[in-house]
Design a protein that fits this description.
Distance between the termini: 51 Å
Number of domains: 3
Bound molecules: adenosine monophosphate, zinc ion
CATH topology of the largest domain: Rossmann fold
Shape: elongated
Radius of gyration: 26 Å
Length: 472
């Protein structure tokens, strides 16, 4: 019997058995990056979770249509619809145009996705390419009576929806009573902008004509509009980071409900934060780690992917260099172990491709248990260390890697990039070992280590690896 796929749905606040709305196919929408800066590794924790979810769905035999947006307009510096547009602010910071920085950071995002082995979304859509869709959406909401006008924009009237805020279990009365920010012309503290006007006399780099006046869309409307365009009125799963629960996703639901009467998606799933020094890693906080920052310190980007596999997506993860070191070592050993299986020869040919059905089933049970990847990873280690035939181990682990995405099959030790003097020392040490000159062999190993390389002895020779530089 098939093992059911259980997923935690934040809308219902419980684990539910996943069944697609249309047999065999899954519609998945994930909120993408705001491209006013590089993405930090915290953002990528969420994108990694979404990639793993997609791979688990594919493992279960579903064809996934994955839509991700690129927010290149309208995301203001405050979630309360005040402050500056992050794009225009980024443009001022860098001396480029808002359009140029959107392009630059979209490309940076796509490069980093590839470096982390994230599968390319079926549709990657920019907010600025969908202005007519957003205007049509707002016009329908207006027709249905959910909007009002203030001097700076068109707002959504949340008090007209009795179930507004259900996703976040918002305490509306408490919010109203305890409000500390100025309401301005808003009727309720939870009301939000659908369309903002360019200030009188201001010429924004990104602005459009609309039935209400020149301006730009609010941040939330792009997701409701593009999700509906590419996935329909009601689709399977919508994802983002945990910060999206109380405002962004709550407002996406409100808008879609006001237009078509659905809550947009059947399942709402969220990744919990990556912390740094026990505080949320944030772009707006100024200091943050990019994927490139890890690469600059000598880490393989996939070590970060491995690190994210070791923590369940519904728990926060505190980033430390020690944890990344441990992940890098784990990844190295796993890759090395899988590679060594391929070299084992003798019993490999006959049973290669025959993976172990028992382990495959146990693996399915772990990942179908709301993506329990830490346990799935532990299972991979059990396979590697266990006593199945080498070929079976290899086939089983490569099958698991369809979900892990660690590139285990493609990996081979990089011997060609070893500097000449190190290669010479290694050859001398191998010769010393062969002639049983142990003291000389040890001395040469120490010399190799001092130069930043580790020599690993294997049955059929040796391998050289650069020692990772940590922050310590
Ligand atoms: P943004 O570029 O700010 O729109 O964020 C892109 C994605 O990253 C969103 O799904 C956010 O919820 C998510 N995110 C932001 N900060 C973090 C963090 N520290 N850890 C995990 N996810 C985050
Ligand atoms: Zn969104």
């Amino acid at each position: 019997m098939a093992i059911p796929l259980m997923l935690y749905d934040n809308y219902a606040r419980e684990r539910r058995q996943f069944e697609p709305l249309v047999a065999g196919a899954v519609g998945l929408y994930t909120c993408g990056p705001t491209v006013y800066d590089h993405q930090h590794i915290g953002n990528f924790r969420t994108f990694l979770f979404e990639d793993l979810l997609k791979r688990v769905l594919e493992w279960n035999g579903y064809v996934v249509r994955h839509v991700m947006n690129i927010t290149d307009v309208g995301h203001l510096t405050s979630d309360a619809d005040t402050g500056e547009d992050k794009m225009e602010k980024g443009a001022r910071r860098t001396g480029k145009t808002a359009w140029e920085i959107a392009q630059l950071y979209t490309e940076s995002f796509i490069d980093d996705m590839a470096r982390l082995n994230l599968e390319t979304p079926s549709v990657l859509c920019r907010a600025t390419d969908h202005i007519p869709e957003q205007i049509a959406f707002i016009a329908d909401i207006e027709k249905n009576g959910f909007t009002y006008r203030t001097s700076d924009g068109i707002y959504f009237n949340t008090s007209l929806q009795p179930d507004y805020g259900f996703l976040a279990r918002l305490d509306k009365a408490g919010l109203e009573a305890g409000k500390r920010v100025e309401l301005g012309e808003k009727k309720s503290i939870t009301d939000f902008a659908l369309w903002k006007f360019s200030a009188p006399g201001e010429h924004r780099q990104m602005e459009w004509e609309s039935p209400w006046g020149t301006g730009f869309p609010g941040w939330h409307i792009e997701c409701s509009a593009m999700a509906q365009k590419y996935l329909g009125d009601f689709f399977d799963i919508h994802c983002g980071g945990e910060d999206h629960i109380p405002v962004h996703h709550t407002n996406e639901i409100a808008q879609t409900e006001a237009r078509v009467g659905t809550r947009l998606a059947n399942f709402w799933m969220h990744a919990y934060f990556l912390l740094s020094n026990d505080a949320k890693m944030a772009k707006s906080a100024g200091e943050f780690l990019r994927l490139q920052s890890l690469i600059d310190r000598g880490y393989d980007p996939l070590a970060y992917r491995y690190l994210c596999l070791t923590a369940h997506y519904r728990t926060q993860l505190n980033f430390t260099w020690d944890a990344l070191d441990a992940a890098a070592k784990g990844l190295d050993r796993l890759r090395g172990g899988v590679f060594a299986l391929g070299e084992a020869g003798a019993n490999f040919g006959a049973n290669f491709g025959e993976l172990d059905a028992g382990y495959r089933e146990r693996f399915t049970a772990e990942i179908n248990d709301d993506l329990n990847l830490p346990r799935a990873l532990a299972l991979a280690w059990e396979v590697l260390r266990g006593d199945l035939a080498a070929g079976t181990k290899k086939a089983t682990l490569l099958e698991f890697d369809r979900v892990f995405g660690l590139g285990l099959g493609a990996w081979a030790p990089k011997t060609e990039s070893i500097p000449e003097p190190i290669a010479a020392l290694a050859a001398a040490r191998a010769a010393a070992r062969q002639s049983r000159q142990w003291a000389e062999a040890d001395r040469l190993r120490a010399e190799i280590q001092a130069a930043g390389w580790e020599m690993e002895d294997r049955v059929d020779g040796y391998a050289l690896k650069r020692i990772t530089v940590s922050s310590k």
